Structure formats: structure tokens, C-alpha cells
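Side project, low priority. Logging it here so it doesn't get lost.
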Amino acid sequence: MNETLPPWLGALLGDGPPRAVPAIASVPEEVVGAGGLVLTSAAFANGEALDESFTAHEEDAVAPPLDWSAPPSGTAELLLLVEDVDAPGAPCHWLVWGLPAQRAKLLEGETPPRAGKNAAGNSEWLPPPLAAEDGTHRYLFQLFASDVAVDLPPGATREQVLARIAGRVTGAAALLARFAAPDEDWDEAEDDGPG
């Protein structure tokens, strides 16, 4: 599958080909990082592990904090899409739009302006629900700058939103997080320790 990935994306993902090609693979390479657009998180560096507090292994899991630089001029709004590239079909974990066309951030657990349906069919952060046998998965946080407003109601699907910005992306950025389910045996051994 690596031959279907742009070289920059293959390098970002590392660790072999993904099981599914993420949405950002379809944008022209020249818009990636256009105008200096960068997506970061205070919770993890690019390619690092996603903390359990953002996954289904934590009872009160929330979305991680995200920061982005100013998008290219002419941007009407920003769209955020998080996909698991190591699961068939790249399930959507978060779909957000209506983000301001300026340098800004989403705080940890913050409710975004508009959210679309995730892979579970609801409009919120879908915490990664991996089992130990699933191994490590890569979660790609993708930011798209669009020169048109998405102008769809909350609850729209990934396909509807991506169709709305097709050919209208003026900038894009990506941030990679990895997650593997915790070793349950280790947790139990810790609990059985001297008390």
C-alpha cells in the first residue's frame, strides 16, 4: 500500500504501510505545510504515544489538546479529522469543522464549534478502544485549511465534509500519535503489590 502514499506521508507514518490510506493523502503535496501551517499537541510530540487519558482505557477519556499555527491567507475555516490508519477503512475518531482561520487551539476535552459523525455514529471524540492483541495503532490528526466554509449541519459524515472541501484545500498539516493497549497483567501485578 505504500505506493499509494505520497512520500512525505510514508515518511511521517514510518513503521511500514498503513492498513488504510488517510484522507490527507488525497491533497496536493504543495498544500502540506503551506504558509507554515503546523499542528501540534502539548500532550504528545509527533510520533509519540497517546496517553491513556485520551483512550477508552480511561473512564473519563477526553480529546487531547491541539494547537495550530496561522493557516494560509484566503482560508475560510479549518477542519480537523482523526483517523486510525491501522484499522480497515481508517475509522474516524473525530471530525471537527468551523475552526477559526487563525492561529488557535482546542483545549483538552474542549467541545468544538461543529462536529460530525465518528466511526461509532456519534459527534464527539471516539477514544481508541484497543485490546492488547491489536498491537500498536497509529492515529493521524489531520488539519485542513479550506477556502470555502464547510456549511454543513453538525452530525454530517466524514464523506459529506470531505466532499465539501474537495479541491478547496489551501493548506494541510498532520500530527501522528501511537497507542497500544496497556498490559493488563502488569496492571494486575501492580494492584497485588504490598499495601
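Brief comment: The beta strands are 39-40, 66-68, 77-84, 92-99, 104-106, 114-115, 136-146, 169-180.
Revisit when time allows.
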